Structures
1.
Amino acid sequence: MAKKDFKDYICRPYCMFFKEGQKEEMTCKGAQIAELLFHRKRVNLEKTPNFASDPRIWKNQQAKLEKYVCHKCSFQAEDCDFQSSAPADDMKPCGGFILLACLLESNLIDESALETIE
Ligand code: SF4
């Protein structure tokens, strides 16, 4: 990713799990897919607006994102509280999930962009 790295577009603004200065050994699938879509020029993260973190948006897009993102995420089975069987009402998804939900909701990407990712 040019100039900034993906943390500046995905983790820092949207992810409640991101900790400044902490070296992440793995990233969630949501962040990986958002970065891949940027590299494939399916979306320009340098030009997207700062989206509000609104639960209605990620609930609207949850079924699609579970299918194309969470089911492929190595955090889903054990580490992801949002995808646990009984998440707290105020539990948020990771920043990648939130950003992808906002991009879908704003029609900056569509489902076909997610379908192309293995
Ligand atoms: S919400 Fe959880 S399972 Fe889904 S991509 Fe994010 S970390 Fe992975």
2.
Amino acid sequence: MQKEEIFKRIIDKAVLGGWQPQGILKGLLDGTLATGMETNFYKFILNSSDNAWYGYIFDIEFAKAVWGNKIHNAEKMRTTRDVCPDCGDAQVTTHISANYELCYEFHLRKLVIAEDKLKYLEKFVMT
Ligand SMILES: [Zn+2]
């Protein structure tokens, strides 16, 4: 999947989850700004030298909308192949604090240390 497509899809997922975009993105999504700019917008943000797109993916409300804020609890999963019933992710850590970590906290932590952040996000926008 292309980088812009992943970024667009994760934004769509956040909006579906209740996140409310502001500024240019809000205008693009609600149609009050010229249509046709949308594809360029995602590309532009991704290619900006100051990693402006981090402002979206590392926003707490954005992350809550994408992954939810229920407990990402390893105890809910009987085997390492099970998925968290709240965020749908199969990744389980054995670290004790994970038992009390919320889904969005777990994924934000993973996202911070991910070398390729779009690759990390991609698995949550596959359908
Ligand atoms: Zn979870």
